[in-house]
């Protein structure tokens, strides 16, 4: 276990969360106050970090330091900066993160598809290499004249 995590409980990467008795808790300090808003207890750090992000956006706006800045537009922000509304929005953000994590797990656990076997890739590359070693097809002229002597050579050149 990480030293900073075992002594302080804080997550080494995410802001506003800490580990307490095997679960992750999130809280945020209200601007210009000493009081904190309790955001909840979550089973994993990502959910707690998402809850913190919504609260930070609600209280600090675009100045907020976020754990997942790419998801900021996907969160539903509370209609007012009251602690109850912030807690509700934080819970919704944590559930949204849970869905994102589940979708990522399902994508990683999809059945392996061997594209080389489907497209016969090793043989395809060998066939392409062999094709580059072939000589161009020999051109034959209908009569005995060579191509250099023929005035109507274009017809023969583009006939196949």
What does this structure look like?
The chain is α+β, with helices and mostly antiparallel strands. The protein folds into two domains: about 110 residues, AP2/ERF domain (GCC-box Binding Domain); about 45 residues, no CATH class. It has six helices and three strands. The chain has a three-stranded antiparallel β-sheet. Strand 1 and strand 2 form a beta hairpin. Helix 2 crosses helix 3. The protein is elongated and about 95 Å long. The model has no long low-confidence stretch (mean pLDDT about 80).
CATH architecture assignment name of the largest domain: 2-Layer Sandwich
Q: Kindly report the spatial arrangement of strands forming the biggest sheet.
A: 1-2-3
Q: State the end-to-end CA separation.
A: 72 Å
Tell me the Rg in angstroms: 33 Å
**Assembly state:** single chain
* CATH fold type of the largest domain: GCC-box Binding Domain
Q: Strand-residue fraction?
A: 5-15%
Going by CATH, what is the homologous superfamily of the largest domain? AP2/ERF domain
Shape: elongated
Could you report the average pLDDT, rounded to the nearest whole number? 82
Q: How many strands appear in the DSSP assignment?
A: 3
Largest sheet: 3 strands, antiparallel
- Can you give the helix content as a percent range? 40-55%
* Residue windows where pLDDT falls under 50 for at least 5 positions: none
Subcellular location: Nucleus
GO molecular function, one term: DNA binding
Pfam families: AP2
Family: Belongs to the AP2/ERF transcription factor family. ERF subfamily.
């Amino acid at each position: 276990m990480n030293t900073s995590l075992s002594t302080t409980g804080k997550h080494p990467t995410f802001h506003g969360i800490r580990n307490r008795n095997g679960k992750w808790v999130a809280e945020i300090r209200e601007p210009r106050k000493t009081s904190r808003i309790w955001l909840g207890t979550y089973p994993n750090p990502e959910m707690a970090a998402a809850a913190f992000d919504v609260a930070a956006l609600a209280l600090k706006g675009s100045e907020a330091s976020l754990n997942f800045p790419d998801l900021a537009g996907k969160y539903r922000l509370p209609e007012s900066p009251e602690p109850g509304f912030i807690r509700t929005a934080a819970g919704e953000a944590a559930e949204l993160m849970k869905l994102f994590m589940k979708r990522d797990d399902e994508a990683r656990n999809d059945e392996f598809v061997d594209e080389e076997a489907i497209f016969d890739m090793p043989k395809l590359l060998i066939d392409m290499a062999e094709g580059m070693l072939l000589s161009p097809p020999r051109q034959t002229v209908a009569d005995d004249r060579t191509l250099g002597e023929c005035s109507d050579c274009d017809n023969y050149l583009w006939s196949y």
